[in-house]
Amino acid sequence: MMTSSSIGRVGRGQTQQEMRINSSKLSFEEAAVTVLIAIMTILTSSVAFAFPARRAFVGCRYPSQSTATRARCAVKSNSSRRRYYHSSISLMVQIGNDAADNIDNEQKRKAYLAVGSNMGNTYQNIANALSSLQSNGSIKLLQTSFLRTTAPMYVTDQPNFLNGAVQVETSLPPFELLAAIKQVENDLGRDLSGNSQRYGPRPVDLDILLYDGYDVTTSDGTAAETIGDNDVQPNSLVMHQPSETLIIPHPRMQEREFVLAPMMDLEMISGVGGGRNEIIHPVLNKSMTELLTMLTKENAKNSNSEDEEEYPPAHRVLPLPRGRMLVFNETIIQGILNVTPDSFSDGGKFSKSVEDALAQALQMEKDGAGIIDIGGESTRPGAEAVGIEEELRRVLPIIERIREESDIPISIDTRNARVAQAAIEAGADIVNDVSGGTHDPEMLSCVAAMGVPIILMHMRGNPKTMQALTNYTKNDGVLSGVVTELMARSQAAEAAGIPRWLQVLDPGIGFAKDVDGNLSILKGAGVIRANCDNMPFLFGPSRKGFIGKVTGEIDPAERDFGTIAACLVSIENKEEIPDACNILRVHNVKAVKQAVLTYEAIQKANME
What we know:
Layout: H1 16-19, H2 28-43, H3 67-72, H4 92-99, E1 109-117, H5 122-133, E2 139-144, E3 147-150, E4 161-170, H6 174-187, E5 205-211, E6 213-214, E7 232-233, E8 239-240, E9 247-248, H7 257-268, H8 288-302, E10 315-319, E11 325-327, E12 332-338, H9 354-367, E13 371-375, H10 388-405, E14 410-413, H11 417-426, E15 430-433, H12 443-450, E16 454-457, H13 478-496, E17 503-506, H14 515-523, H15 525-531, E18 537-539, H16 545-551, H17 560-571, E19 582-586, H18 589-604
Helix pairs in contact: 2-6, 4-5, 7-8, 9-10, 10-11, 11-12, 13-15, 14-16, 17-18
């Protein structure tokens, strides 16, 4: 038995006492790791981690970030406004960037870690653990998978888990990395005393899955010094200590979908030249995709077709503030609420009365909206920019009013970091930036600091100039242009500190595209998704001008029938990627929700 290999799995909203179950003693070997932690803490400074307590903050002054990062997010906020999010969520990638200079280039190796939690605010726990793990500079977070909510395995009488995987770069050899991980788990409240039940609930669980090896290694996984050229070999380390306190690769990863699915996410990330980065198991000599395919087939073969609970599906999620999540077990409808006087479809309809806007938001929630998207600046073709103070005046009252009546997720449709900051503090959950973070240079760092999701849309120019920028070439057509430019924005967001599991992409229908370009995007939605690493996608064709050109309908409010067709075609490629994550941004929530429910029911129907 071993400690480093007991991978955790997911749930939220319950206290440790509520989730405590009858405990059983762990093995001698597992208890020995606790001794290892104490020894390593004394002998090496590399594992002296101090978990910072969560603190309130004002503006963008976040307790664990560098001065440079705080300066990039110098957004003033109303200190009396209620805080709806926690600063510690946001520090994962940014701290890794700041800490990278402390890692000796000659000692760097990469490792893959499983991350999980099923106690309390599960995403906050994972984010805090990764932030703390990087705090002394010997470990840097490189990439994240998507996150999934999964049913517990082995011990099933406990909450669901939140699971993912990350790639890190570290100067620590395997046993020191293990000790660092256990120190972080201990700091975050995991019981490592030997009195907790194996595979039981835990606030956080970090486990070493794969680790870079050398051409020749010693028994503890370090490089042998007896040869001149001893090169690093990706994911090649194989360790099996007699005490079994650490086994690499993880001995049970091939039997766990909640490990293989996130590892496949990492394997799908585009490499040099757009190819995929295969992650090969050093013992089984198979990629993560191959292992997951084999496991899925084996589970299907062994399961009772009438008992779906035997192998319940894992669902990808988008973490939100206050421990909430958007679950992509279905297409999510985002209802549009423009509080502008000049939007192309409903301008002026909800801009004069907060109560009218509230009534519309609550009606859209009743009709099936999973998100309310609030915008205070029209971005229709040719629209003039709105001043930040005016935009704030328009959006803050309705966000605050909705929060008095409903906890429905709210996205703020803005290009300005200051508006995004104030909206999130007022109770919004997601930033929806039609410029993909290009309009305001402070946007990405500010969203990273707040630790909330961002929707990155593809666009060229600005609302006044974008329709003159539709000249995609034959060699760089609209599909390839959108993919290339969207992925550049995703990578910029990740570099700024927004992990991939907090990103949603939007191909920007109607923005810097002509009629043919919009139709090509809808027809090629699956192609775009596949070439964007299966990121979650938002499609916003609602009542747009291309529908009017195709149908001859002049009045935008009469284009809902064409909108339904565009929405359905944008999600019809789901069978190519079974876990595709879709959000549809629409004006007529009820009509599109009914159409999507019917369409998805047909897709799932059994033809036998």
